User: Fold this.
Amino acid sequence: MQKGAQSGISARVTELSLYGCFVEMPDPFPKGTELLLKAYASGKYFETEGVAVYANLGHGTGVRFQNVRPHYVSVLKQWLIEAALAKFGKKN
Assistant:
């Protein structure tokens, strides 16, 4: 959701990392737009400020995270570990 907006939009988050993500949407936010990103998955909630670093018309927006609170860094790390284990499995 654009910072300061009264309502948000639902979109799919992909390419998640510690530093940002890609938000799939047909009408992406222009580069430089300040955002408040909220995500829900696996019964957990993540929220951070961000900025659109690029827009791919018809596909989505690349977002760089800013000022991520420590609690949400923990949630993000847990999601990334779960994703890596799902993709690569556990080492024996």
Summary: The first helix runs from residue 70 to 88.
